[in-house]
Design goal:
Helix content is 38%, strand content 18%. The protein has 16 helices and 25 strands. The chain starts with a strand and ends in a 6-residue tail after the last strand. The model has no long low-confidence stretch (mean pLDDT 95).
């Protein structure tokens, strides 16, 4: 069967649609930055290609530190006006923004497909979660802000590329509801056009948003240490997050630093393999390129044969490929678990890690083939990686102790509960973990000793929506916890002497309802 790109989904068609929706933000040959209340043709556009098939797409207009400093000062001016804007007006402008996002949902989602390789279902889901999440805060914000005030300066957002809508722009709207201007640095790996369109629709409604592109080395010091910044919100890896934490150490700024951890799934005294098989396939959504993915399974040795009986067919059923490939023009877009990785460099790096782990003694239990992928004839496939599963990666391998951020599972066998816990806590803190067991009392006891912020018993955990709190232990999180009212409290001022729930150098505090 020969596949084709679904008509109407071409990159050129998408970009023209963005230009028609927001001509102030998109030129024929470049995308603009937005600061000081205006769209600006500053910065040098960087070459960018889509991970989907290597098509050249719009690249981020990279500015330097001087321009970033000017943008921060302008955002501070906007912040001073916005923080005294009545809540009802702030609410009306944010509501108009999410209504505009809903109107242009499919354009925003198609940008996510081309820019970061999300399958259509997950791309639309990202937009929908941004809309529904902000709508929930619109109804709750008055109570959440009772007795509180906006920060002294704008919130600086430095986020990863994988959830531009449901995490980044969602947070920016909540920050605006709380009375703050919001600054965002475009992730250099992808999401420029989606973010630019979302910010353009918000700026039309009067929201005080700033969006600039630039390298982390140039912009991060400005977006973290500038005296005008009221709070820093970071999502990314531990190396960069550690540098941000170091830069913040002597400033006393409110901060939210979400960092990676190795999220583990433990299996002990368990027998519901049909349920488990369905859960395994779901872990491959978006090629495990999310902070709450599960790339490590810790399995009781005596259950390994039954584990494999459920696990291997589930992995073999995973569907991946070009998110816009169809057999005929009338077909719906394909139902895929994942498309490409974020770029060819990441795919090459992950393939090298897998090869090195096998050379070091890991046993390949499953290796998919690119021939299993849904692809267009002759298309570029540099960013595509098939699912792979390794037994007992060597301790010297990055796959043993770090999150791969790709469709690569590692499996470790254990003989005692103590070994199970040690293996699940290999990365000094994680965001989520799960324990599959037939004994709920045992599950609860083990969960209490796992250093993950959320631990599921016989079910996976995620960031959660609306009023569900989110954070992390150890090196996976620094600063205030978020979710529900805590997201609002993290970007607003409460009573003098308030100690926000979070993971700080001098204390860790969890609200009673979570403990």
């Amino acid at each position: 069967m020969t596949l084709m790109l679904k008509p109407g989904t071409e990159w050129t068609t998408l970009y023209q649609r963005c230009r028609e929706i927001a001509p102030e933000a998109f030129a024929a040959d470049r995308v603009y930055n937005h600061w000081g209340g205006r769209w600006r043709a500053d910065g040098e556009p960087r070459l960018a290609v889509s991970p989907v098939d290597g098509t050249e797409i719009a690249g981020p207009p990279m500015v330097g530190a001087d321009t970033a400093e000017a943008a921060v000062r302008a955002a501070a001016d906007q912040h001073r006006a916005w923080r005294v804007t009545p809540l009802e007006e702030r609410r009306a402008r944010v509501r108009a923004t999410v209504e505009a996002w809903s109107e242009h949902r499919d354009t925003l989602a198609l940008a996510l497909v081309w820019e970061i390789g999300k399958p259509w279902r997950l791309a639309r889901q990202d937009v929908d979660r941004a809309v529904s999440g902000v709508e929930w805060y619109l109804e709750q914000i008055e109570e959440m802000m009772e007795g509180r005030a906006p920060l002294e300066g704008p919130v600086s957002n430095i986020a990863s590329w994988n959830y531009p809508m449901s995490v980044l722009t969602h947070a920016m709207c909540v920050q605006a509801l709380a009375g703050n201007a919001a600054i965002a640095k475009t992730p250099t790996d992808g999401g420029l056009v989606c973010l630019t369109l979302a910010v353009a629709l918000a700026a039309r409604e009067g929201l005080p948003f700033t969006l600039v592109s630039g390298g982390g080395r140039d912009l991060s010091p400005v977006l973290v240490r500038s005296p005008e910044i009221g709070c820093v919100s970071f999502i990314g890896g531990r190396d960069t997050g550690g540098q941000v934490a170091t830069d913040l150490a002597d400033l006393g700024k409110p901060h939210i630093l979400e960092q990676e951890g190795l999220n583990c799934w433990g299996v002990w005294d368990y027998s519901d393999w049909d349920t488990f098989a369905g859960q395994v396939r779901k872990t491959f959504d978006y090629a495990k390129q999310r902070c709450t993915a599960y790339p490590r399974f810790i399995v009781q040795r005596s259950l390994f044969d039954r584990f494999l009986g459920a696990y291997l067919p589930a992995v073999a059923s995973v569907r991946f490929g070009h998110p816009l490939a169809v057999a005929s023009a009338q077909d719906d877009l394909p139902e895929l678990d994942f498309g490409p990785l974020i770029n060819a460099a990441k795919a090459k790096d992950l393939a090298a890690q897998v090869s090195e782990a096998i050379a070091g003694g890991a046993v390949p239990l499953y290796r998919g083939s690119p021939e299993d992928a849904l692809l267009l004839p002759g298309q570029n496939t540099d960013a595509y990686v098939a699912p792979v599963s390794l037994l007992e990666p060597p301790r010297s391998s990055p796959l043993f102790h770090a999150e791969p951020f790709g469709p690569a599972d590692s499996i470790v066998l254990v003989d005692t509960e103590a070994e199970l816990l040690a293996a699940m806590n290999a990365s000094n803190g994680a965001l989520v973990s799960t324990i599959s067991t037939d004994d709920p009392d045992l599950g609860a006891r083990l969960a209490a000793e796992v250093r993950a912020f959320k631990v599921g018993i016989n079910k996976p955990r995620s960031r959660g929506d609306r009023d569900e709190m989110f954070g992390g232990w150890g090196a996976s999180w620094r600063g205030a916890f978020v979710g529900g009212k805590l997201l609002v409290h993290a970007v607003s001022r409460g009573p003098v002497g308030e100690r926000p729930p979070g993971n700080f150098p001098d204390y860790t505090l969890v609200p009673r309802e979570h403990s």
